[in-house]
Amino acid sequence: MRRFAILPLLACLTAPAFAAPPRVLSPPDPAQGERIARRWCAACHVVAADQKEASADVPSFFYVARHMSNRDLSSFLTDPHPKMPDMSLTRREIRDLTAYIRSLAKASGGQ
Ligand code: HEC
To answer: Contact at 8 Å (CB) between 99 and 33?
Structure first.
């Protein structure tokens, strides 16, 4: 008999896990996008106003912000240009990067 008494207890413990609402996608986070940019993109691109050095002939993120739409940016980052390494960014990272680059369109600085 004691063996059966544990079943309702188990049901109570596991029920909340099934009842949990699906994870809601939080809005893009430009601050996280900036961290990714400084870490993964700054070797070649100027990604922020305080950055002095980057490769020649690589567009700065200020330029990119003014010349690419969000949709162009997301599709480019999903399937990057052959001249650029494929960094296998997640959709979340792409959304954050796009939000960060978009914020640079309003900032002054860079070329
Ligand atoms: C190893 C160097 C390198 C790294 C690292 C790099 N890029 Fe690039 N990127 C390039 C080059 C070179 C181009 C120019 C490609 C061309 O014009 O053919 C470019 C172009 C771009 C463009 C413009 C594409 C267009 O059509 O004008 C975007 C946007 C971009 N990169 C975003 C990023 C992001 C975001 C990261 C970091 C996650 C990154 N890049 C990391 C080398 C790099």
So the answer is: yes
